[in-house]
Amino acid sequence: MTKPIGIRKARPEDASALADLAFQLGHKEEAGKVRDRLLLLNQEHVVFVAEEESRIVGWVHGYLFTLLYQEPMGEIASLVVDAGYRRRGIGRLLVAAFEQWVKEEGYNRVFLRSNIKREHSCIEIK
Questions:
Q1: Which of 40, 53, 94, 123 is the right S-S partner for 60, CB 3.0 to 4.6 Å?
Q2: Is the pTM of this model over 0.70?
Q3: Biggest alpha carbon distance in the chain?
């Protein structure tokens, strides 16, 4: 029986787990640098983590932006779910948390780019 997945904002002490998961995206980074970057994020950025029994099994990093020719929107910069936890709806929960944050910030659009390597990573945003 699987445990419920909790979603919350990332904290500096999550840096090691975030770095480990980033490696699954092909990005090798030191936990200390990830921690420093978390601390430097401004209010237009957010990182949510997915937890199962205090273990971080996924995260999403997104931000708000404005272009001269489009309405302001949120963009998902990175989304990763641990390989052993995929196909359980965790990515969908993380996207929903980001969408809710974007709405709370007064924006009504979310933009997402997908890596062609991930053919099973399509997310329908309603």
A1: 94
A2: yes
A3: 49
